[in-house]
Amino acid sequence: MDTWAMSERCPCGTGLPYDECCGRAHSGTPAPTAEALMRSRYTAFTLGDVDYLTRTWHPDTRPADLTLDPDQRWTRLDILSTEAGTPFHTAGTVEFRAHYTRGGHRDSLHERSRFTRENGKWLYLDGDIRD
Q1: What is the pLDDT of residues 82-91, one digit of tens each?
Q2: Which option is the CATH number for 4-130: 3.10.350.10, 3.10.450.50, 1.20.1250.20, 3.30.2290.10?
Q3: Over the stretch 75-130, which tens digit does the pLDDT of each residue have?
Q4: Residues whose CB falls within 8 Å of the CB of residue 3, separated by 6 or more in sequence, listed in order
Q5: Buried b (16+ CB within 10 A) or exposed e, 53-88
């Protein structure tokens, strides 16, 4: 991982340093909420961390192969809403908009993601793409 990530603000938008935010999840501490997992997965996309994305994807819905587009650069995450997904729940949803650039063009992904908590760990289950 790049050394910038340890001291600079986390890409997920909390304003915290990476090592105090998503860096904890990336190094093995389970995300405490569905939103925290969503943020850590977004950060994994920005860093190209396919291993983390695979580990935090529910095995029932995880693709056999995950290849990230090297030309896609994630630039900002906006959390639009959350439902449940606290340490007291076993399911939760997070609606977000993730902004990116690709081929010199700006765009965004708007998704309502579903998460499940199994054995004390939140996992990404699936998502519905929104307009």
Answers
A1: 999 999 999 9
A2: 3.10.450.50
A3: 999 999 999 999 999 999 999 999 999 999 999 999 999 999 999 999 999 999 99
A4: none
A5: beebbeeeebeeeeeeeeeeebeebebeebeebeee
DSSP 115-126: EEEETTEEEEEE
Residue 98 tokens read as 């993730």
Residue 34, Ramachandran bin (φ over 0: left; ψ between -120 and 50: alpha; else beta) = alpha
Least Cα distance to 37 among 120, 115, 128, 131 occurs for 115
Which residues are within 8 A (CB) of 55 and not within 5 positions of it... i.e. 6 or more apart? none
The model's pTM is: 0.94
Mean pLDDT value across residues 15-22: 96
